Amino acid sequence: MTEFIASRKLRFGSKVLDRAKFGNISPITEKVIRNSGDKSLLTVLDADPEKANSATRTMMRKYLGIK
Amino acid sequence: MPGFLKDWLESTKDLGRAAMEGATPRQKIFVFVVGVISSIALLAGIVFLLHGESLFACALLLLGIAVPISTYMRIFRDELGAVSSWQCFVPKLPIDPSALDDMSQLLEHIRVGAFNFLHDLNNDLRDKHVRANAFLADYRRGGNGIAFKLVMLDKLRKNMNHPPEWQLEFGPGQGATGCVFIEADHRVTRRLPTDEGEWDAVFKMSDELKEKVHKDLKWIVSLPLKDPVSQCALAVLNVDGLDYDFSDEQYMDMVTSVSRDCGGLAALMAKQERVKLFVRVEEIQK
Fold first, then answer.
1. Segment B185-237, tens digit of pLDDT
2. Nearest to B275 by CA among B216, B232, B211
3. Most buried of the four, A21, A45, B35, B228, by CB within 10 Å?
């Protein structure tokens, strides 16, 4: 059996991210983001969903390596 | 350009690149400032030399040469003379208790969020079927040629109700967790579709490890929690499931639905005090 079948890298293409449903932000996540010291993360909490989603994609890239 | 000079320049470049990978922004600024100062000192030295001020010229030229060399030796001393080296920065253990509590809460949010997402796809799925854990590098358990073991802290396992799994320890590159830690890239892992339910040989799972893993475990989605600067993994987050399986695309959507909490967990990891893990290989001079 090849590695490809048993385990593969998830491919987060633009399609996945474009239709992303990020869900609500939990109080603990909000607290962590506010205390993180990373100012760019604060936009994740922005009331404007477009700005918040864009910042979330940046967060995914920076902290989880999801492009 | 002579071959030896070309080789030397290439190896210097590689050395610099390798050392800079783990450098903090402050170190990078420091190296830049030192470069500017030494360039100015060298230029001023040449100007003084042309004007016959040999004492000033010598002092400035020496300064221009000595400052970058001493900086280079200080920052890159670990790599100097090494055949190869590897380094990463991981959270210092034990983790601050208050931060650990926050991590624990975040992990549960991630697990519940993942469960809710998957439950909408399959109503047979029960809460017990979706679990979450985070593995950290325990450098205190290194030895026998292994720099560290990846372990689950008590508070960083959710719904992991199979006690033998609490003792799981993965070496670098071992298991899905060890692979994701080294590659710092996410992946989805399933058991091989055979009667024995084996794991792919690429994971180097020992019989002891296979024995500890829950027999009904079907899939694992593993994410590196990365340092935003060096892009190395600080820890590995796993969301896994028993009995039921889903498609890759559904897993991707599941991860996306909880990505803010996952990013929050990574940001919290990145904020912790850290230690540098360093592996160095060097030739022994006779």
1. 999 998 877 666 677 777 788 888 888 999 999 999 999 999 998 899 999 99
2. B232
3. B228
Is the model's pLDDT at A3 over the cut of 50? no
Integer CA distances (angstroms), B6 to B9, B10, B27, B72, in order: 5, 6, 27, 20
* Residues of chain B neighbouring A25 (CB-CB closer than 8 A): 260
Per the CB < 8 A criterion, the answer to whether A33 and A41 are in contact is yes
Q: Say yes or no for a CB contact (<8 Å) between B252 and A12.
A: yes
How far apart CA B81 and CA B123 sit, in angstroms, is 60
In A, minimum Cα distance to B184 occurs at A65
Contact yes or no for B263 and A26 at CB 8 A: no
Looking at residue A48, its pLDDT comes to: 87
- Are A20 and B105 within 8 A, CB to CB? no
Nearest CA in chain B to A19: B253
Task: Indicate the burial class of B131 (C-beta count within 10 angstroms; 0-12, 13-18, 19 or more).
Answer: buried
The Cα–Cα gap between B215 and B197 comes to 8
Q: What is the pTM of this model?
A: 0.77
Q: Dihedral sign, CA of B170, B175, B177, B179?
A: positive
pLDDT at A66: 87
Closest chain B residue to the Cα of A55, Cα to Cα: B260
**What does the pLDDT look like over B268-277, one tens digit per residue?**
999 999 998 8
Instruction: Tell me what percent of chain A is helix, strand and coil, each rounded to the nearest 5.
Output: 60, 5, 35
C-alpha B24/C-alpha A11 separation (Å) is 30
Find the helix or strand (DSSP H, E) in which A41 lies: none
pLDDT at A6: 52
Give the pLDDT score at A5. 42
3-state secondary structure of B238: strand
